[in-house]
């Protein structure tokens, strides 16, 4: 193969790759949630607002099914969730959780959250994962990371 033919071939390959990546990106950008995914998202967002921000266990519990808890420090079931809300009300009445990103995949709703228990503090970065079934939250996983004072990059956590 001659050098000019090799570069021409490389150019065509790069052009094909660019088209492929552009098409894939466009397809991802155009993804629309199904009606069920939209309902699941709305359920989790309302549950989070009523439970974590308004600290209204009764209103939030309407969305709970079995509520299997995968956080080893939290109890299973709606009663376990209400104990957590009672803990927040008693110890952190001004706590607030801001949802910064939401992802939905079928029966799973994933939230990226900035939770601040006391005003003026940095708070925690949280990833909450919920699995729903028949319009009820059946399972919950979370991962919690304190927001550090300094960062080795300027990307931000949210």
Explain what the structure shows.
With 158 residues, the chain is α+β, with helices and mostly antiparallel strands. Helices cover 42% and strands 29% of the residues. It starts with a helix and ends in a 12-residue tail after the last strand. Mean pLDDT is 88; it is low at 12-26.
Please supply descriptive tags for the structure shown above.
158 residues; five-stranded mixed β-sheet; 5 strands; Nuclear Transport Factor 2, Chain: A; alpha+beta
What does the secondary structure layout of this molecule look like, with pairings?
Blueprint: H1 3-29, H2 35-53, H3 57-61, E1 64-69, H4 77-91, E2 96-105, E3 108-116, E4 124-133, E5 136-146
Parallel strand pairs: 1-5
Antiparallel strand pairs: 2-3, 3-4, 4-5
Rg (CA only): 22 Å
Figure out the total of helices: 4
First-to-last CA distance: 50 Å
Query: How is the largest sheet built, in terms of strand order?
Result: 1-5-4-3-2
What is the 3D shape? globular
Number of domains: 1
Low-confidence stretches: 12-26
Largest sheet: 5 strands, mixed
Report the order of strands and helices: HHHEHEEEE
Quote the beta fraction. Answer: 25-35%
| DSSP strand tally | 5
Helix content: 40-55%
Q: Pairing-aware structural class of the strands and helices? A: alpha+beta
Name of the CATH first level? Alpha Beta
* CATH topology group: Nuclear Transport Factor 2, Chain: A
Question: Concise description?
Answer:
The chain has 158 residues and is an alpha+beta fold.
